[in-house]
């Protein structure tokens, strides 16, 4: 059985952007999974035997529950809703779900409302032909939603999608919810698999594959590309596997049988755009450093440049004597007349919980939903600007508005960073 094979076979996993031309290519053995038909119980699959031997009964149980849910929704049409700015983990898992659902004659459309701006995300979609579609709130109004029998949330819980409220108002039920973030709200789903202790949603989906929900085949190009996308998602959410746990490594080992190392390397070598470099430069210029926290507001950004914010945070956290970086800006979409404050947090401090830090700093909206959250070493927040959104034709007004939001965000962050120097006087 592969997963108990010598560790040398695991060495085919590429952890760097530079391939080793001297490393011999490892022959990928064909997959032999007993779980051939969606109507068969997944427990007979090769991956399921491994999981049971490891005592991972939860993964097995969830796979069986998901299978029953899919069987109950044969021939349905579903919407797979991702966060407005989907990352590799979300993109790859949505694709894996679509391939699994196809076996039950379930047609899925993967949609998001924001933008793909990170160069690696753009490369991932283009090089793999990942089937994803952008539906803005305006686009949604032109769609006939009555043809969908359910919707799916993957790697998010609806708090980071503009599409959720419209889909719910259309009366479409939530059928599947799969995520590795902390619980964000009270959503009722027919099937739910939320595991905050798992480093990547890609690990959860790889376990589904191991139990036989989909038998990957290296002769099928789509399977190879999806496995490559899952490897990228797993690698991305575990900081190049440096923060991976045992189950993440085992998931990577399983995927190493199917993924295309050259394709992954091409995705990772995508170049930063000039706009991203400009935002990084702005963050360096505007940052303040207190108590080993680096905080930087970068002003206004185009909607399509949103992913420059986490890249700037990735850069600032590498500065000497800095363990945590927070970068934020006002992201605006002129076409949709939408503005939102978006921020990213990166930390190397083991005792700092990004999820708790962001939730304590920014709190909840009127519906009780948090403005942000996080996972190990990373987090993010999105704050709608409401009535103050738009109307930036007057440069003096736009500058004044930015200064107000910049000051308010800094106050909320510094209240936690420097509690004794808190500029906000609480009664």
TrEMBL record:
Organism the protein comes from: Nostoc cf. commune SO-36
Region (Disordered): 1-24
Positions of the DDH domain: 80-233
UniProt superkingdom: Bacteria
InterPro entries reported in the protein's UniProt record: DDH_dom, DHH_sf, Oligoribo/pAp-PDE_c-di-AMP_PDE
Protein name as annotated: DDH domain-containing protein
Top-level taxonomy: Bacteria, Bacillati, Cyanobacteriota, Cyanophyceae, Nostocales
Skewed-composition ranges (Polar residues): 1-17
Record Gene3D superfamilies: inorganic pyrophosphatase (n-terminal core)
SUPFAM superfamilies per record: DHH phosphoesterases (SSF64182)
């Amino acid at each position: 059985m592969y997963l108990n094979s010598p560790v040398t076979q695991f060495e085919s996993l590429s952890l760097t952007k530079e391939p080793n031309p001297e490393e011999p290519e490892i022959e990928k053995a064909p997959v032999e999974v007993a779980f051939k038909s969606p109507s068969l119980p997944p427990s007979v699959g090769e991956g399921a035997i491994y999981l049971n031997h490891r005592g991972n009964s939860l993964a097995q149980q969830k796979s069986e529950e998901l299978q029953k849910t899919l069987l109950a929704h044969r021939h349905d049409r579903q919407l797979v809703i991702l966060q407005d700015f989907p990352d590799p983990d979300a993109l790859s898992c949505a694709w894996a779900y679509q391939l699994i659902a196809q076996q039950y004659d379930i047609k899925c459309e993967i949609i998001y409302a924001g933008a793909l701006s990170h160069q690696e995300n753009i490369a991932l979609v283009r090089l793999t032909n990942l089937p994803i579609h952008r539906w803005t709130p305006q686009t949604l109004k032109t769609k006939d939603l009555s043809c969908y029998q359910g919707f799916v949330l993957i790697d998010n819980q609806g708090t980071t999608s503009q599409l959720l409220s419209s889909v719910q108002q259309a009366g479409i039920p939530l059928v599947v919810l799969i995520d590795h973030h902390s619980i964000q709200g009270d959503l009722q789903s027919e099937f739910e698999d939320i595991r905050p202790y798992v480093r990547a949603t890609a690990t959860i989906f790889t376990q589904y594959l191991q139990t036989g929900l989909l038998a990957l085949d290296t002769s099928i190009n789509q399977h190879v590309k999806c496995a490559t996308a899952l490897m990228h998602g797993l690698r991305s959410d575990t900081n190049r596997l440096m923060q991976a746990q045992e189950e993440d490594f085992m998931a990577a080992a399983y995927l190493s049988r199917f993924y295309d190392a050259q394709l992954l390397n091409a995705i990772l070598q995508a170049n930063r755009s000039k706009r991203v470099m400009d935002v990084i430069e702005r963050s360096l210029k505007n940052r303040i450093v207190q108590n080993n926290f680096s905080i930087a507001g970068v002003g206004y950004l185009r909607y399509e440049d949103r992913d420059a914010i986490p890249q700037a945070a990735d850069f600032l956290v590498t500065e000497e004597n800095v363990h945590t970086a927070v970068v934020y800006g006002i992201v605006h979409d002129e076409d949709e007349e939408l503005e939102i404050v978006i921020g990213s947090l990166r930390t190397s401090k083991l005792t700092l919980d990004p999820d708790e830090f962001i939730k304590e700093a920014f709190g909840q909206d009127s519906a009780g939903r948090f403005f942000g959250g996080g996972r190990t070493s990373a987090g993010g927040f999105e704050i709608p600007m409401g009535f103050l959104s738009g109307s930036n034709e007057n440069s003096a007004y736009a500058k004044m508005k930015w200064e107000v939001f910049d000051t308010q965000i800094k106050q909320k962050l510094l209240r936690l960073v420097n509690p004794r120097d808190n500029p906000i006087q609480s009664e």
